[in-house]
Request: fold
Amino acid sequence: MSFAIQTEWNQMARVDTKTNLGLSNLMIEISKATQSDGSQMRSIALMTMIFLPGTFVATLFSMTFFDWKLTAGDMISPYIWIYVVTTVVLTVATIAIWYYCTGKFHNSQEPLLPH
Reply:
């Protein structure tokens, strides 16, 4: 090969390398943005799991098939402890199951649920 052809090939390789470097930097930025989105989605999911059991139990207990009789002058039923205990147990169970299913508790790389 002549010197001119080698110089031209080197110049093309240099441009190609710069292009690949630019693409790599863009991919790094995209992966950082994706990671940030993923952590924000985890935060939203965690907040939902904290409030959802309490909402479910409150809805269930507000139905008319429960007869919570109040004594005269009471604003809150003496059975409020049932709501609190049920809500705390369901919330802890929900978060524990989520923690286990997201892979924080076990080291397996296999997905827990099939796709």
